[in-house]
Amino acid sequence: MSAPTMELFTNQGTLYQYAGEEGEHPYYKPLGDVDTFTISLLKHKKTAGTTGSNNSSVEYLIAVAEDGEKVFEQPIGVDLQLSYSAPTASVHWPAIIDEELETVAFRFTAPAAHVAQVTAQLRMQQFVELYNRCTYSLLTGYDEVDPEDEWYQYLGAATTREVCNEDATEPVFEFDPTQLTKASTGAGNICAAESLKFNRTLVVKKSNEEATLELQALPQTERGFDRAAMEKLVVRGVDGTSTGTLLENGDVTMLLFGGSSAAVQRLDLAHGTVVQEYKPADLPVQSVAYANHTAANSGPVYTCLGRNVAFNIDVRMDPRSCVVMEDGKQPTDYALPSLRKDFTCHATSQNGYLVIGDGSGNIRLYTGPPGARKPAGGYFPKTAKTLLDTKVPIVDIDVTADGQYIVATSTSFLLFIETKYVDSNDKESTGFQTRMGARKPQPIILQPSPEQTLRMGGATMVHFQTAKFDRFPGTKELCVTASCGDYLLTWSLRAIESSQQSGRAVVNSAVAVGQTVLSTSANRASHVGFLTGNDVGVVPVHEAKKEVSRTWTWGTE
């Protein structure tokens, strides 16, 4: 027995395909007679065993028919990237036609029986609103969506963008794939750190011996790496299961963390020895960040993340009592025992603002680590100033130095979040200082373009690992760099800010590196570094202008 299908919306109009140039402007070519098509939104109950990767019991479809005959059906998802034009009462999206990726558009017609009461623009708006509810349903697993729900109002419209019928260019950070270089390190790479002071990339690798790690220091050159001058170091007495590293200020010592020993270990890089081990309050430490965004700003203070708590440590203090916290308190006093899923990642701003992501999709914004000492005296409270519910597990997170922007990574897409807002008293604030209420800015979804998604193998193969703002010296942040499978992607921060005003989708640049990317680094204005399981590499990057839209016309047969 076939699963039931419900029609949520249907309307007449005309289906067009983007057909290239006509005179001086691109145009859309009708794929049949005008107003002989219908567009519908369908809700389809899945049969047992076909729930798919999002574990939803339903799927939603865009269906287009001509004179009652089906033209095509296409599943809806966050990756579809539907856009709309109010002046032309049209929606635009990528579709596979004759095994080729094409851009199609549907122009709505006012219903003949209600032409005086219902306009084509209104029907287009109703379609977009229902489409947003469908994608939100898939995102959250909710079968029914309340349009008045706070989090629907925050996230619901993030999956659709306005398309403007105009000529426009936007800044983009473009990779130069012809100059991409890699140096083989052998299998077993874990993590890496870049030393600008010594012009080295330090790669931490697995070792065949227990309680041992291998470090490789590769000198960087204008063209990549001097592998012949690579230095190797075997570190013994170390947690061989460590997953992360930070260079301390001065680049002569390194912290290792994230291993099964639950400790933070300090390495002397000159001698290859563990000189100190910190087990703050005997709590497992998942990850460590500079307390104030960078090593130079943070000194000896680091922000640690446990399963359900964050806290500062000072590595000058006794390793057994190095937590910087209110007298008489322990980190467990500030833990969140009722978390649905554990904390997964954290980041700090230059003045110590703290953002934490978790496995349920919650993002918490703190003025500082709970219980840590405030610069002006007193201690930071246990409760976050703002909680944002994104509905998808957060696997990585970063924040700009000034705390104005956050980039949160889910496996399927990135969320670009602005923390600055105007409160109910018309005063400007940030979500780190006061609770962001109903007036919080809507986030922007960053994802591969339809062409990039196709090259990656389709939407099911899109799998983000990490996304970070650059740390180019001497400037404010200029771009977001992400790893997605074996691809690197960049988005210009200026283009993202422009999108907040224009509503246009944000263009990016992408390059394939041949292996799954474990991590990226953007510490130099001229290139992006990356680590794979077997290599370390760099690819040049430069800012350019890219045409993102052109004025189009509607063609006729």
Q: Would you spell out the secondary-structure blueprint of this structure?
A:
Layout lengths: L4 E18 L2 E6 L6 E9 L12 E9 L2 E7 L6 E4 L4 E8 L2 E9 L11 H21 L9 H6 L4 E3 L5 E8 L5 E4 L4 E7 L4 E7 L5 E10 L2 E2 L5 E6 L7 E4 L5 E5 L6 E5 L4 E6 L8 E4 L4 H4 L2 E5 L4 E5 L8 E2 L18 E6 L5 E5 L3 E5 L19 E4 L6 E4 L5 E5 L4 E5 L1 E3 L5 E3 L13 E3 L3 H7 L7 E6 L9 E6 L2 E6 H10 L6 E4 L4 E8 L2 E6 L2 E15 L3 E2 L3
Parallel strand pairs: 2-42, 6-9
Antiparallel strand pairs: 1-2, 1-3, 1-8, 3-4, 4-5, 6-7, 7-8, 10-41, 11-41, 12-13, 13-14, 14-15, 14-16, 17-18, 18-19, 19-20, 21-22, 22-23, 23-24, 25-26, 26-27, 27-28, 29-30, 30-31, 31-34, 32-33, 35-36, 36-37, 37-38, 39-40, 40-41
Structural summary, described in words:
The protein is mainly β and 557 residues long. The protein folds into two domains: 5-167, Pleckstrin-homology domain (PH domain)/Phosphotyrosine-binding domain (PTB) (PH-domain like, Roll); 172-543, Methylamine Dehydrogenase, Chain H, CATH 2.130.10. It is 9% helix and 45% strand. The protein contains five helices and 42 strands. Strands 1, 2, 3, 4, 5, 6, 7, 8, 9 and 42 form a ten-stranded mixed β-sheet that branches. Strands 10, 11, 39, 40 and 41 form a five-stranded antiparallel β-sheet that branches. A hairpin with a 2-residue loop joins strand 40 and strand 41 (535-549). The chain is globular.
